[in-house]
Every structure is written in structure tokens, then in C-alpha cells.
Amino acid sequence: MYRVWTRERVFTSILSRRKRKTPGGLVARPVLTSYYKSKQFKTRPYDPYNVITSPNETILCVDSFQSMYSQMLCGLIMREEVLRVGAVFASGLLRAIRFLQLNWEELANDIATGSLNHKVTSPSIRECMAKILKPNQELAELITNECSGENWEGIITRLWPNTKYLDVIVTGSMAQYIPTLDYYSGGLPKPCTMYASSECYFGLNLRPMSKPSEVSYTIMPNMGYFEFLPHDPSAPAFSRESPPRLLDLADLEVGKEYELVITTYSGLNRYRVGDILLVTGFYNKAPQFRFVRRKNVLLSIEADKTDESELQKAIENASLLLREFSTSVVEYTSYADTKIIPGHYVIYWELLVKDPANSPTGEVLNQCCLAMEESLNSVYRQSRVADNSIGPLEIRVVKNGTFEELMDYAISRGASINQYKVPRCVSFTPIMELLDCRVVSKHFSPSAPHWTPERRS
Question: Which of residues 294, 313, 345 is at a domain's end?
């Protein structure tokens, strides 16, 4: 017996971000937020295959708690109609699951009583939710039974039993979240349909059900003018006297890496996107690419992107707090810890303490964490302050000699002692284990960094 669906509900976590101003006075906000606030989104035509469980009022609210709470409430109420669950990025979906873990009791109470939590103060949200929220004791009991235990494996299919797949981006830096997504979803498919950015749509995945690690995108030549810069990390930097040679689509070779350069209909001219792509083949004459990484990006949890120079500057600013203790940072490395939600930056420090009797206290090192966060870019600070999508930065102080052991380990695996450089970001499990077993103290940022949203006029 087949069940006929009149509409395909999508439970997706969509959070609008506050606008901000650039140093030059221009208003800036993410492209998706601009779309959600546009007339095109608000008056979009009805699509029976893409009906979002979240009313517009819940999406447009810039208060992350009120927006997430009301969207989660709608998703639970319409659980039987939901065929796919998702967010823009994998990290966003996991943040929604973490939100559910923290707030399921209040959500269940709202459903049982048919009254909206007093923490949701937005008049527009309260008005629209009054039309949706009705007492449902049976659903409240189901949510309580599923969420009250310690086992959250497969929670997505337990709460949304008709879910067919997860609608999230899991390529690039988001691939680190795949094991956690599999745990919460029971291994649901994670199709990757397209490759796009704020600047332009680039390509389509013609095999959307392929594994995330095997995804290749076919470039759509009609979306812009695409050129490619051969990527060779060992090559010397370009200069005005020796400008880079850009290649057209037809000049690319399978197995080689390129940096994407675009000229768009909206006015970008030979813009370096910063994405490194690997050519995997051709579809007819259009090249197919696998996304390799962002150029120069060391750390990323969600929309944030921190490169080596920015991390170095943050370390230098934080080190100023150590001067009065005659202490300096000898070496450092980092990694993005996504094992807990929300993820956070972890910085390993090896310190040189000249006067052990006057070594920096734990409170000082906590302030070093905050000083680093204050030095990072606005996107990072907004994620920390407004979106709560990144946790407090952590500094782990390691024993003296740890980075010498790290070098010895690299040399034992074939690295040249003359060319060895301390990696500024690590992810290889044996290296992580080496660093963690040498940690002597852990410190966290005691408060959120400064970030001011653009005030409404």
C-alpha cells in the first residue's frame, strides 16, 4: 500500500543574521539572509515539493533563540509530514539537534498545553504560532519518551519518521561532521546537489546520491566566465613582473589542482574565490571538479574562516598579556574541535616561563583566550555572540619539549629535518594524541568577544 503525499514538508533550520557595516560604511550581511529578507522570498510561489515547516516570521527573526525555538516547535508539530531534514551547513543541523537536547522539555510543555514559551517575545512570531500551536498531549508524550533518555542515536528518524534524506552541505570543511550526522540520523543519505557561493553558482552534482567523499561537480559555463589558476604551493609567489597565467575550461587537465577565478554577471571581474579544486574528469566538454579546500584557511567551524596570518596576529595580541610574567609563546598549533556542539577553536601553546615563581595564572590565560577572540574577524565574533554557533576558544598549555617531539615524529615518518615547519593546524589522529597527552592545563575564554550589530534605523 502506497501513501500519497499532498505536499513535501521540509524541516530546515534557517537563521537570519544581523547586518553590519564595513569600515567604509557599507551594509554587509550573508547572501542567504539577504534572500530571506527579499521580496522574492517573501512572495515566492507555492511549491508543493518544497513547503518549509517554518513560517516566514520565524525565519526573519534575528534573535537566534527565538528563531530556533519556534522553528523547532513547528518542525515537531508537523513531524509526520516532514520528508527531509536539514540546514544550509551540516554544522547548522547539528546545532539544531543540540538545541533540541537543551530545550526539549519546554518544547514538549508548549505542545502539551498549546501555549508558547514566554521566552519567545517577538509579536510576529507569537501571532503566527497562535494559529499553529494547539494542545497535543500525545505528541508531547512521544517527544518526552524519545528525548528523556541518554541514547540519542537515530533521533532524527525517531522524531521525524518519514525522513528520506538530510538536506545539508557535507563537502569541504563540513565533511568533519559526517560521523556525527550518521549517528543522529541512522545513516540517512546526504545528497550533495550543487556547488555555489555568495558570488556565483558554479556547478551541479550529476550523481547526487554518491558518497560525499566521491562527489564531483560539473561546471555550468552559462553561470559566469570561469578561469583557473594552476595551484602549486611550492611555486614562488606571483609578482607584477610575472603575472599568473589563467587557463580556460578547455585547457584543464585531469588530476591537477586549480584555484577558481570568476567574472560574473553582477560585476565581479576576475575575482579569486579562494577555492582549490581538483579536476576529476569531463562531462561532454565541461570539466568536473572535486572541492579540495579553501585556500589558506586553517580553522573553520561554520561560516567562519581563519587563515594563518590572522591566527598569528591573534597569538601576538594575546601574548602581550604574558609580558609582565616574563613569559612568551615558544610554539603553537591549532585545530577545530567539532566533537561537541557547538564546535570551538583549540590552540596548543608551549610557553617559555623565565621566572617560575611568577608564572601566569589561570585567570591570565583565560584572558589570553578572550584576547585571541577579540583579534579574530567579525564573522567569527558574530558566530560567537549572536548566533552561538561557535563555543569559547580554548588554550591548552603543553609541556616544554612537546613541539620537539612533534618534529621527531614528523621526521620519523619521512619529513626532511631541514625543511620541517610546525603545522599551524593539525587533524592527524596520532599528532592529536601526542599533543593531548602532553597537556598540563586547559583554559577557556571567560566571556564572549565584542561584537555590535547594526542598529535599526
Answer: 294
CA distance linking residue 54 with residue 56, whole number of Å: 6
Dihedral of the alpha carbons of 1, 188, 8, 136, in degrees to the nearest 10: 90
Hunting for cell 554518491 — which residue is that?
Answer: 210
137 with 227, same domain: the answer is no
**In-domain check, residue 1:** no
* The C-alpha cell that represents 58 in the structure block: 520565524
**One domain, residues 181 and 67:** yes
Strands in 295-356 per DSSP E: 297-299, 306-307, 327-337, 344-353
d(C-alpha 411, C-alpha 84), whole Å: 48
Three-class SS state of 203: strand
Cα atoms in the Cβ-side hemisphere of radius 13 Å centred on 250: 0
| Predicted pLDDT of residue 16 | 67
Strands (E), 159-199: 165-169, 194-196
Q: Read off the pTM.
A: 0.72
- Peptide linkage before 342 cis (omega within 30 of 0): yes
> What pLDDT does 240 receive?
60
- The one-letter amino acid code at 266 reads S
93: burial class by Cβ within 10 Å (0-12, 13-18, 19+)? buried
- 420-443 core/surface letters (b: 16 or more CB in 10 A; e: else): eeeebbbeeeebeebbeebeeeeb
Report if residue 326 sits inside a domain: yes
**Cβ-contact 385, 448 below 8 angstroms:** yes
Specify whether 58 is located in the same domain as 181.
Answer: yes
Give the contacts of 43 (CB within 8 A, at least 6 positions apart). Answer: none
Amino acid type, 307: D
Residue 236, pLDDT score: 55
Domain residue limits at 49 = 9-185
Same domain, 52 and 198: no
Number of domains forming the structure of the chain: 3
Q: How far apart, in whole angstroms, are the C-alpha atoms of residue 271 and residue 199? A: 9
With a cut of 50, list the residues of the chain below it in pLDDT: 1-6, 455-457
Are 251 and 302 within one domain? Answer: no
pLDDT of res. 8: 60
SS (H, E, C) 357-390: HHCCCHHHHHHHHHHHHHHCCHHHHHHHHCCCCC
